[in-house]
Amino acid sequence: MLRFCVAALALFACISLARSAELLTEPAGRIIISVRDQKLTFVQSGVKPITYRVSTSKFGLGDDWGRMTTPLGFLQIVQKIGDNAPAGAVFHNRHWTGEILQPNAPGRDPIVTRIIWLRGLEMANAHAFSRCIYIHGTPQEKMIGRPASYGCIRMRSNDVAALFSRVTLGTVVQIVPDHLPSAKQALTALVRPPNDGMILAHRSEKSPAMVHKNSTARL
Q: Which member of 116, 124, 156, 162 has the greatest number of CB atoms within 10 A?
């Protein structure tokens, strides 16, 4: 029995390391999000950076459970949801309800249009995936440009659809508290995050099956 347990633990460790190693293969390009500027830029070698206005959490920064804050550091795109959904498509529990909202619909604040689900790559953001930290569309477009979310990164519907089409699974997202770097600095920063941080973050996360469905209600 003891030998079986040891073998099972060794197998689990190998799978975890293998999955972390897979994430090290970073596609060309990176997303950088500035909390101070409330802006997101997508940088790619040989391509002019594209910048959008966003909204991060109105509750500040961090990765603690129940605080509804935006995490800092290196993260990575692990799921893309909503491909070909119309602008304003309302999502509940990551499924389109069939409803479509116009921008700034009074009294409504659901997730709309697209969902880009992030996983933390460092201990400082290890709970991001299980906290359901997304880049997603919002009908509250009048609030874009100032902190207004419940932890996620909100974008206008047209902007998040455009970004969604440009990024791939594995694209690294860096959330910084300061100003966006210059285009030259951003392109110079296209390097991989530390391997050990990725592995530690992977071990700390809950599996997708443990994510509470209602945690996507207001983000």
A: 116
Element (H, E) at 200: helix 195-204
Q: What is the mean pLDDT of residues 108-133?
A: 98
Distance CA 86, CA 27 (A): 27
What is the model's pLDDT at position 6? Answer: 36
CATH topology (fold) of 2-216: L,D-transpeptidase catalytic domain-like (2.40.440)
4 contact partners, CB below 8 Å, separation of at least 6: none
Residue whose C-alpha is closest to residue 54's, from 111, 172, 135? 135
CA angle centred on 162, ends 169 and 172, rounded to 5°: 30
pTM for the predicted model, two decimal places: 0.79
Angle between helices 195-204 and 2-23 (to 10 degrees): 130
Chain segment 54-109, per-residue pLDDT in tens:
999 999 999 999 899 999 999 999 999 999 999 999 999 999 999 999 999 999 99
Beta strands in the chain (DSSP E): 30-34, 39-44, 47-53, 73-81, 89-92, 95-100, 111-120, 134-137, 153-155, 172-176
3-class SS shares of the chain: helix, strand, coil, % to 5: 30, 30, 45
